[in-house]
Design goal:
By secondary structure, this protein is mainly alpha-helical. The chain has a single domain (6-218), classed as MetI-like fold. It has helices at 6-42, 47-62, 65-75, 85-111, 114-122, 127-157, 169-180, 183-218. The chain crosses the membrane at residues 20-43, 55-79, 85-105, 139-164, 184-202.
Length: 219
């Protein structure tokens, strides 16, 4: 019978953690890019664009991420398209993240005083110029804490991708448990690794929110 030391278990989990981190980064960056596009559509003066973005956001916020992962992985398979687990996981998490980030950022843009819109419009700025030079720089300060905070949800969301066969930290935990028959040790280490990934992000979000609020009040 093969015996597994604590280091053997931890090493295998840490190897899988690389994929959790990579998937989180891809989802956050991709979701941010798509979310920024959704933001511009959502606040557009053209009602059709605004409504389209609104329905997208409501669809992805109103349905379980697990279902979205299933559709991304199995849905395209109905059309004869073979989708690798990593691609389906990245696509689903990116589209899901985009919906939440767009809504977070919309709230931050709307938090900027309306007088800023009026003042920039009086200078002859177009909509894009207003956003680029006046609104977004102010909204960015408000957006940093909740955006960093949401990254924690993305890291946690990667755990669901194990259901479609993507081998990240939680999936590796199951595999290692089946090999070692030490579920308490394995899942205890899995929990500690997730905590090590999420706690600094959560704490950073709180610190940034506190600092930026103080800076805002001082002005």
């Amino acid at each position: 019978m093969i015996t597994f030391t604590l280091w053997d278990i931890l090493r295998n989990l840490l190897l899988a953690t690389r994929w959790t981190i990579l998937l989180s980064l891809v989802s956050f960056i991709g979701g941010g890019a798509v979310g920024l596009g959704l933001l511009f559509l959502r606040i557009s003066k053209r009602k059709a664009f605004s409504v389209l973005a609104k329905y997208y956001i409501e669809l992805f916020q109103g349905t379980p991420l697990l279902m979205q992962l299933f559709i991304a992985f199995f849905g395209l398979g109905l059309f004869g398209i073979d989708v690798p687990a990593w691609l389906a996981a990245g696509l689903a998490l990116t589209l899901w993240s985009a919906a939440f980030l767009a809504e977070i950022w919309r709230g931050c843009v709307e938090a900027v005083a309306k007088g800023q819109w009026e003042a920039s419009a009086s200078l002859g700025m177009g909509r894009l110029q207003q956003m680029r030079y006046v609104i977004l720089p102010q909204a960015l300060r408000i957006a940093i804490p909740p955006t960093v905070g949401f990254s924690v949800q993305i890291v946690k969301g990667t755990a669901l991708t194990s259901i479609i066969g993507f081998v990240e930290l939680s999936k590796a935990g199951t595999v290692v448990t089946n090999a070692t028959f030490q579920p308490f040790t394995v899942y205890g280490l899995v929990a500690l690794i997730y905590f090590a990934l999420c706690w600094p992000l959560s704490k950073s979000s709180q610190i940034l929110e506190r600092k930026l609020n103080v800076a805002h009040r001082s002005h």
